[in-house]
Write a structure and sequence with these properties.
By secondary structure, this protein is of the alpha/beta class. The protein has six helices and seven strands, in the order E-H-E-H-E-H-E-H-E-H-E-E-H. It is globular. It has a four-stranded parallel beta sheet, with helices on both faces. The protein has a three-stranded parallel beta sheet with strand order 2-1-3.
């Protein structure tokens, strides 16, 4: 199964290569993941609500204009599921979202879940998406880490910030937390499961592939 993806922000060659290598590592057998960079007009990061809205518009336009490469699905490289429709839209190549896949799986398994995000704008957008998908009753909220953009490519900084947050989720009886950045690995084990939405989404898609 081939999946076509697009970064939600413009990235340089090194960051694109890092993300491609991560997906190559995460992709289960039989899954080919093709990641392209967003156009130069896309935002450089998701720092504000306007950035999130611009990113969504650029991803939607790029997917709509993408040539047919034989992909079975398109999935944005972003936990906010930009351009993922809420209802069937008749697209020749369906667009699926890693947040929707991850949250659906957790809810189907009876698991209440939270999320961590780098900043407030991403946190608000993620929480809104969860509500749009109808999973609000299962959602324990977002913890904002207040990290700068560089933390995305520095796992040590990200994980140092996350561990205390997971402790606080544990105190509330929440056993699963979605890692609110599709470009960051989940790191060392913790009693609260930090769920990598990209990794889980790929496993679910591979498991459901009739081929």
């Amino acid at each position: 199964m081939r999946i076509h993806s697009l970064t939600p922000i413009r990235v340089d060659a090194d960051e694109l290569a890092r993300r491609r290598a991560r997906y190559k590592r995460l992709a289960p057998p039989g899954v080919e993941f093709d990641l392209d960079a967003a156009p130069e007009a896309a935002p450089a990061q998701l720092a504000t609500r306007d950035d999130v809205e611009a990113s969504t518009a650029h991803v939607a336009a790029a997917f709509a204009e993408a040539p047919d490469t034989g992909a079975a699905l398109r999935m944005p490289d972003c936990v906010l599921d930009p351009a993922v429709p809420l209802v069937p839209d008749g697209a020749a190549v369906p667009i699926v979202g890693m947040l929707r896949l991850t949250a659906s799986h957790l809810v189907a398994a009876g698991r209440k879940f939270g999320a961590v995000t780098r900043n407030e704008a991403i946190g608000e957008a993620l929480a809104a998406r969860v509500e749009e998908y109808g999973f609000g009753p299962w959602f324990a909220g977002v913890a904002v880490l207040d990290l700068d953009f560089a933390a995305i490519s520095d796992p040590g900084v990200w994980h140092d910030a996350v561990r205390g947050t997971l402790d606080r989720f544990a105190e509330r009886g929440v056993g699963h937390v979605v890692n609110g950045c599709s470009a960051v690995d989940t790191g060392a084990a913790h009693p609260v499961a930090l769920v990598d939405p990209a990794a889980l989404a790929l496993r679910l898609l591979a498991a459901g592939d009739p081929a």
